[in-house]
Amino acid sequence: QVQLVESGGGLVQAGGSLRLSCAASGSIFSINAMGWYRQAPGKQRELVADITSGGTTNHADSAKGRFTISRDNAKNTVYLQMNSLKPEDTAVYYCNLVWWSSTLKYDFWGQGTQVTVSS
């Protein structure tokens, strides 16, 4: 059983910063990718950024230059440092953990953490 626990969301003024954390526990394959997605009201869930266990990162265009994803493999924890926040960043942010074993995809999600940016 894999569990993802997120923390760090909250209310911040435009231009401010937040740091999200997501700790994974359970039976986790060492070669994996962890990421952050977000979903705003009335919109589809979208990728914000992800990072492989080898450290390769991918940031959505909306996140480039403002958000930075990182991870601590020893702690199975992924972080999202969000700077220069904008009201349009308001959403529920979800942590994701995924790995492949042969043809099977193992895909896990956190419960989500609310980020609200006021103008």
Polypeptide structure, described:
With about 120 residues, the protein is mostly beta strands. The protein is built from no helices and eleven strands. The protein has strands spanning about 5, 10-15, 20-25, 35-40, 45-50, 55-60, 65-70, 75-80, 90-100, 105-110, 115-119. The strands form two sheets. Strands 2, 4, 5, 6, 9, 10 and 11 form a seven-stranded mixed β-sheet that branches. A four-stranded antiparallel β-sheet has the order 1-3-8-7, with no helix packed on it. The model has no long low-confidence stretch (mean pLDDT about 95).
Structural class: mainly beta
Beta-strand segment tally: 11
Report the biggest beta sheet as strand number plus sense, adding barrel if it closes.
7 strands, mixed
Q: What would the principal axes of the Cα set say about the shape?
A: elongated
Oligomer: single chain
CA-atom Rg in angstroms: 14 Å
State the end-to-end distance.
Answer: 40 Å
Mean pLDDT: 96
- Assign a percent range to the helix content: under 10%
Uncertain residue segments: none
Per-chain topology:
Layout: E1 3-7, E2 10-13, E3 18-25, E4 33-39, E5 46-52, E6 57-59, E7 67-72, E8 77-82, E9 91-101, E10 104-109, E11 113-118
Quick structural overview:
The protein is an all-beta fold and 119 residues long. It is built from no helices and 11 strands.
Keywords, separated by commas or semicolons:
four-stranded antiparallel β-sheet, seven-stranded mixed β-sheet, single chain
